[in-house]
Target: Chorismate synthase
Amino acid sequence: MRYMTAGESHGPQLTGIIEGFPAGLSIDIDLINQRLAQRQGGYGRGQRMQIETDQVEIMGGVRHLVTLGAPICLVIQNRDHANWGAIMAPTEPGDAVQDRKRAVTTPRPGHADLVGGLKYQQTDLRNVLERSSARETAMRVAIGALCEQLLAQLDISVLGYVTGIGSFTTQPAQSLALDLVELRAKIEHNDLRLLNDSDCQSTIAVIEAAKAARHTLGGTVQVLATGLPAGLGDYTTAGSKLDGRLAQSISSINAIKGVSFGDGFALGQLAGNQAQDPIEWTAATGYTRTSNHLGGLEGGMTNGLPLVINAVMKPIPTQMKPLATVEINQHQKAAASTERSDVVAVTAASVVAEAMTAITLCEVILEAFGGQTVSRIQSRMKAYRQELLER
Ligand SMILES: Cc1cc2nc3c(=O)[nH]c(=O)nc-3n(C[C@H](O)[C@H](O)[C@H](O)COP(=O)(O)O)c2cc1C
Ligand SMILES: C=C(O[C@@H]1CC(C(=O)O)=C[C@@H](OP(=O)(O)O)[C@H]1O)C(=O)O
Model:
């Protein structure tokens, strides 16, 4: 399976194409739209999210709500395009005078503006920021929600949630025995995707303080996945290691600056005998462990325990009290551009991280058990799980 997205933030639409997705999956469009709504949520998002009501349209690869095995084409309209028609029209010529007047020429530190402009020889940095915008992650969430539905058919669940915003941090879920249905009910109970509703007030206070001071915040997220058999991913080549593939897919999310697994950076301070997960065997479970410090990964492969991924998001780069920059035509000192912006988007990032994990897990599962139809993949995976139990 592979996917591709296209579309600018204020262009007409986002488009996604997924190739290699199996036939025979009955899809729930409401669930995709639910995930899109969750990505739009979270206290501290900017005015753009009041303009958009993201809804997926299915334009190919599905008939009567069942996948055909053909490339799947998804579309999400940008409602805000109506306000940007002339500026963002893909097929009408620009107005040279107007375009020069409107050009973005004061790159924001921390965004793609300056380096993207240098790389693509742009004099209007809008030509960079339109695509580097995290608007694109809406399509990744729609694709991830389809992958989540395929994973559900294989008894695999994925969940992303917020573990900290700015100075506020919470205790993550205990990762050895996890009920993701129960956890999902908890985090979907509040708009911030925090495990405990009681943490919301303090978190909102932190966000309000940042907003009042006209600066921005980052935070941390955790993604959990359960129901994974041991042996997804591989130890034999650099490119097939699942930890490497997950690190790439999570750190490809805009503003994510760090990814770790299990106890992550804390492992560096532990004695060796405290950091590994002792092995046990029972007839009912086959091989298992008595702890999960390593987040369900050994040698670039799942080990059958819950997968635990942690990621950190830097504070949003666009600042209402702009940082110093350089105007790119005159090379004069200037204040960076102040686009309308989110104060914080960690809640949204947790939904995107959930989607990216679902996509990466589907990729490795289809590589290992692929066979054009959902029922064939189900029976191959069932036989593999049975084989593991009997070893
Ligand atoms: C869901 C989401 C929403 C974001 N919203 C904004 C925003 O409103 N303003 C902004 O400057 N950056 C925003 N960002 C971060 C930028 O897109 C990101 O910092 C930029 O693309 C540069 O990429 P990098 O931080 O990965 O280097 C957002 C990121 C995510 C994941
Ligand atoms: C549009 C989304 O996020 C955007 C991500 C973003 C950025 O620079 O990354 C900048 C803002 O865009 P705008 O300038 O239109 O307000 C965010 O709203 C979205 O998440 O759907």
